[in-house]
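User: Um, any thoughts?
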Amino acid sequence: MNHRRHSAAALLTLLLLALTLPLLGGCTGVPEGIQPVSGFKVDRYLGTWHEIARLDHSFERGLEQVSAHYEPRADGGISVLNRGFDPVKGQWKEAEGRAYFISEPDIASLKVSFFGPFYGGYHVFALDPDYRWVMISGPSRDYLWILAREPQLPSPLLEELIARAREAGFSTETLIFPPPSAPPATS
């Protein structure tokens, strides 16, 4: 009887692993139809970026003045420091993570982790030639960020980026524009 319990437990464990591992691997995938930027120059990308717009998600909900800072790591990866102000609590929140290229370093498709061994996709699919603004997708179209080197973008440029994101299949009508960002002026 005891042998059957161990066999059933082992079978259940294997079944759970078989079901869970593909899901974890899928968290870094690129959404269908999204093409990560090629010719990516990580040294030009490093430094501080300001969040201009994002789709809502729990880990940034309510934060303002959001920024991301990227630095090289000794192991070949990238250190990530995300920072935002919580106006309700009157305090800054920070999250430190690490990122690694999924394939070649000239393809802007990375996996990022803030929580131990769990990684999520980070895919740059639009990038200014002078590295002044960027659009990033997560592993699905539920995640979208528009970042810039400055805290705000000119309204015509922001309208253009939102239109590009809409054409790429993102729900741009639900974008959040955290202060000091502002939605584009309507004509």
